[in-house]
Structure formats: C-alpha cells, structure tokens
Amino acid sequence: EVQLVESGGGLVQPGGSLRLSCAASGFNFSSSAMNWVRQVPGKGVEWVSYIGSDGRIRSYADTVKGRFTISRDNAKNTLSLQMNSLKPEDTAVYYCTEGASRGQGTQVTVSS
Question: What is the spatial distance between Cα 10 and Cα 91, in angstroms, rounded to a whole number?
Fold first, then answer.
C-alpha cells in the first residue's frame, strides 16, 4: 500500500521560507517520479513541481519557478520542497503524489 506523509507546513510571513517533506513507503520510491501539487479549498488542484526518479530531471510551474526547489533522498525515501520568497498566493494545502496516490497534505499559510 502506497503511503505518503507530508510535513513541514505552517504559518509564515510573506517573503519567508518553509521546507516541506514527504515520507514515502509501500512502493519502490527510488524508481518512481514524484510530484508536489497544491490545492486551495474550493478550487482545483494545481501542479507545483516534478522530479524524476533519479533526481536529475526537475520541472516547476511558472508560478513557483525560481522560488521553490524540489529534491529527493532515495536512501531515505524522502521527497522535499524548499519554498523561499513565499507569497500570500502560495497559501494552500500541499500534497506529494506518486501516480494517483497522495498523502493527507500539509497546510501552508502565508500571511502577515
């Protein structure tokens, strides 16, 4: 059974930083591409970032490019998202995904 557990969210002021983590289990993490997506209640899911199985290929939504960095540690089955220069519009629940599976999410709130 695929299990994804996100953590690291919280309340931060505009311009601040947060680092999200996703602990993965139940599948071959080192062979799986991973994504971060986010969702504001009442709105659709927005794709944020992608990373290939070996970490060499990464891509970002235009809305976060240059501010967010995705990374992974295949030895620890962990996916991360470093978020810098946060803006109020980054407020959302953030999820890591593997295929159609996602975790429970972690809330990120950017507000002064």
Answer: 10
Residue count of the chain, please give it: 112
Q: For residues 80 and 19, is the Cβ–Cβ distance under 8 A?
A: yes
99-111 per-position pLDDT tens digit: 999 999 999 999 9
Residue reference for tokens 């969702």: 39
Place of tokens 């235009």: 62
Those residues whose C-beta lies under 8 Å from the C-beta of residue 56, and which sit 6 or more positions away, are none
- How far is 36 from 14, CA to CA, in rounded Å? 21
pLDDT tens digits along 53-97: 999 999 999 999 999 999 999 999 999 999 999 999 999 999 999
Q: Which two tokens stand for residue 41?
A: 């209640």
- Residue 94: which residues within 8 A CB-CB, separation 6 or more? 6, 9, 20, 36, 37, 38, 48, 81, 105, 106, 107, 108
Secondary structure element (H or E) that encloses residue 74, with its range: none
**pLDDT, position 8:** 98
